[in-house]
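[READ THE FOLD]
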Amino acid sequence: MPRASANELGYKPLDGGWGWMVVFGAHISIGFAYSTPKALSIFFKEIQEDLGASYSEIAWISSIMLAAMYAGGPVSSVLVNRFGSRLIVILGGLMCGLSMVTASFGSSIVYLYFCIGIIGGCGLSLNLNASLTIISKYFLAKRPLANGLAMAGSPVFLCVLAPLNQYLLDKFGWRGSLFILGGLMLNCCVAGALMRPVVAPCKPDSFALQMKVAEQPNERNTKLKGGCMSNAKFLDLSFFKDRGFVIYLIGNMMFIFGAYAPIVFLSAYAVVQGVEEYSAAYLLSITGFVDMFVRPGTGLIANSKWIRSRIQYFFSFAMIFNGTCHLLCPLMKSYTLLVVYAVFFGIGFGMVFALIFECLMDLMGNKRFPSAVGLVTIIECFPMLLGPPAAGLLVDIFGDYKYLFFMCGSVIVTGGLFLLVMNIYNYYMLEKENRAKDREQSQNNLESQDQVSVSERETKQTSEAAKE
């Protein structure tokens, strides 16, 4: 796929400078967005016993939170285009803090669904979309590296939050832990303050429109109105006409369905295998620690000249590797083998999430990315919503965790193979279409040259006749 050019935005991205501070802010914002639904699983056993919930019911907390985070993508895109990333991330941080504090007073599972799942998920949605969008405005040549560093916030925060939540749980119970966690999540407001805007809203469109206005001043108002209206569009369904986007979306949905259930139930699975609770919580930290280094490393690899043009294939490989780890997990019975699984899980998970949004940017370009990511996230909320509860239901039915790992692994591997095969087909069709366009262009050029030659001959004959 061709890379987006600076002309799409009407300015040349800085690829550095204050952009690295923006990456640091996005690192914090994205870190809370992706690690919080996973780290909350530390509290699930205590909440389950306190409120009398089943495995599938308790899994809905993280599931609803993740689904709301993804479903809020289009709304977040519109708000980011209108108000900029800084204000939206600050608002998202306030919502996240409020959700955890109010959830600490909950007395029913439905109340936690609303506070943690809906309010907290919407806050995380504002943080995630705004952070990804502003990175695409600050970086172009170094964008894979910037995305990798920003996405590394998830494993870094998971590595810290998993043992911290276990410590808070032992000291203050799940209610006091949620209250303290709400205070920590207010740091997203600080992250948002770092996101200094590159341009004013509608600036990219205004840049292009000013060139047209200079040529056609009478149409100024109509064109300006159309430019801003296109930015504020809620859902752009024209993306479904793009073959590469549809392929990416289908494969991504299959990954999202199976991605989070193994994380949600990993600690509980380890406890069933006879692992002590603190050691079980550290499995998430091990996954996060490995993931922490894999994401920026993957960004560096993806930024190389050998991989950048083949990044879609690299993404397919990462998905297949991740799914294979889950298929092998039921064979891990001892704590040592579970640590090995956690390491390879961190590698596969980190590779996928370092590439997941970079691949979308590669397909859509910087200008179309905010609208595209909004559409992708709202569609992904459905597999996100159903994945963990479906896995919990398998545990309730069979009384064994191995079936959820088989389900998640098989779905992810199938999605990776689908992406691999369909991307080969897509690139082949693109080359074929480009050759057809080149032939058509050449034919048009020849016809134009023939017409010019005929016109020149006629002019010459006319001038000769006039002389005679």
Remarks:
- The chain has one domain: 13-198+238-430.
- The chain has a mean pLDDT of 78.
- Residues 402-467 form the longest helix (66 residues).
